[in-house]
Design a protein that fits this description.
There is one protein chain. With 207 residues, the chain is of the alpha/beta class. The chain has one domain: Ribonuclease Z/Hydroxyacylglutathione hydrolase-like (Metallo-beta-lactamase, Chain A, 4-Layer Sandwich). The longest helix is centred in the C-terminal third of the chain and has 12 residues. The radius of gyration is 16 Å and the shape is globular. The structure holds fe (ii) ion (FE2). Fe (ii) ion (FE2) binds next to loops.
């Protein structure tokens, strides 16, 4: 991460089920919050601790209640609009499009539609391949409850081809570690590295 212009703060906000929220900052002060939820006081403290941050976006990985419960509380100190998949259940969100590049710092954060856990699931990738925010699509060594075929296609065709250097930051603290590189997950995550739909379905029996 040291070579990246971005800093990622993985916030253990508790919430419904060991949820994570994220604060991402760029060298120029641009900042993003992903999935505001749980104890929003923790998010506020992380934000206030860094000076001169410029709120750019509140991004949702999907609209399950445990990921969006803190939106209104966060908007009181983080003056940014909410962005989400067009099928989001959060009224008033700005609709994103697949592969949209949201300007952020000197580069951008890319929007990647990843159906499977829900129809409105989105992952977000920092342009320098330093981080991938996966919500309930990809956990460390697991994947989210899902429509099997949609999730298999997402894993195989969308996530697996991404660069190994991306650190996977998921929506819940479910893994042996809170985060790991995508390269490591390609080796260890049976949902990500299933080579066929049959193999993926077999792995789902353990979910
Ligand atoms: Fe979810």
């Amino acid at each position: 991460m040291s070579s990246s212009e971005y800093n990622v703060f993985q916030l253990k906000v508790g919430g419904f089920d060991d949820n994570f929220s994220y604060l991402i900052t760029a060298e120029n002060g641009d900042s993003i919050i992903i999935d505001p939820c749980g104890d929003t006081g923790i998010i506020k403290t992380a934000f206030k601790r860094r000076k001169k941050l410029n709120p750019r976006y509140i991004l949702l990985t999907h609209s399950h209640q445990d990921h969006i419960s803190g939106i209104k509380a966060v908007q009181k100190f983080f003056d940014a609009e909410v962005y989400a998949h067009p099928k989001t259940a959060w009224h008033g969100a700005q609709p994103l499009s697949d592969h949209q590049k949201l300007p952020f710092g000197k580069g951008y954060i890319e929007v990647i539609f990843t159906p499977g856990h829900t129809r409105d699931c989105v992952c977000y990738r920092l342009h320098d391949n330093s981080a991938l925010f996966t919500g309930d699509t990809l956990f460390i060594d697991w994947c989210g409850y899902c429509n099997a075929f949609e999730m298999y296609e997402t894993m195989r065709k969308i996530i697996f081809p991404m660069a190994d250097s991306n650190i996977v930051y998921s929506g819940h603290d479910y893994g042996r570690v809170p985060y790991a590189t995508l390269g490591e997950e390609k080796l260890k995550n049976p949902y990500l590295n299933a080579a066929s739909f049959a193999e993926f379905k077999e792995a789902l029996k353990n979910l």
